[in-house]
Design goal:
about 400 residues, 16 strands, Creatine Amidinohydrolase, Creatine Amidinohydrolase, Chain A, domain 1, single chain
Amino acid sequence: MKLDQIQSQLLRQNLDGWLLFDHHHRDPLAYHVLGFEPTQHVTRRWYYLIPAQGVPRKLVHRIESKILEPVAGDTRVYSSWGEQADELKHLLSNCQRVAMQYSPNCAIPYVSMVDAGTVELIRSMNVEVVTSAELIQFFEARLDQQGLDSHLLAGRLVDRIRAEAFAFIGESLREKRIVCEWDVAEFVRHRFQEENLITESGPIVAANEHAADPHYEPQSSGSSVIHSGDLVLLDMWAKLDAPSAVYYDITWTGYCGDIIPAEIARVFDVVREARDAAIHRVQEAFSQGTGLQGYEVDDAARNSIRKAGFGDRFVHRTGHSIGVEVHGNGANMDNLETHDTRVVMPWSCFSIEPGVYLDRFGIRSEVNIFIDENLPRVTGEIQREMIPIV
């Protein structure tokens, strides 16, 4: 646990403390912050207060009194519900404003881990509860140099495998071999294994109308055969098989033929322009030092697509935080599914991936952005034109 840094952030945000809480391992973020994983079942409620100044304080149940032993702090115990309430008052003495894993109106559900009843309990003690969203991303979403290096290396490997996957489709078509979406997904997974890359799921290999489903994944039976004249969307995410490695996540689209139909070419142009508008919004904000919130990046991409007449066909957020998990704990580029007001921070990584999804096909274009102090940059290759798969 980075106690000095946490307390510095608490003082900066005018907070008296950060109250961490768990019951039945419902809040994995709390363990991330504390820097340990419990070695026993968490069947009783525990509380851990990191004050803005001074020594952390613990409150644990008597039958699980060792649950917070890996972290420093003064310990008190309880058994009954009445004793718990009394001890909580003692724990929170001198606190008027504390952060918890809570989000008003569940606006940012990724940090909304504490149940409403526990928030009510803390408030009943005349303590204001505010969201820990900015604290979480400060300690969870910023990369170090090792994490950045792992992301960049994974990017070079994934970009290479993506090109090979399109070539695999083209070779199969030229040689009149049957190739389906599942075959391409298996090709990608095999190449990931060869390059020491791992992934929690995927990839998405989607032809034609399947590409209109943003989270389609082919299965071993029932996936579509890919033919000449088909559109193919390929969404791949992976990281190095190494501790604390950071994901790389991209989406490209191709067309099985050398002449791209006008409708597909137009939609690709619309998506590309929206992607570039979002990239420009990030770069502009950091070059001017004006600050930036996640929802503003989504607005840039969404307004571009709306002006092109496809606003109702862009059905997901513009991007998500990227870290040791493909969907990280930092700001998302989102003003659709949530109104994400978290600050876009230096040393954070996230995707920009607008899409347009029609009945017969869908197109998404995804890049990753890393911000080194005040210099946002795309960390891998950028698709400029629809890929002809020939």
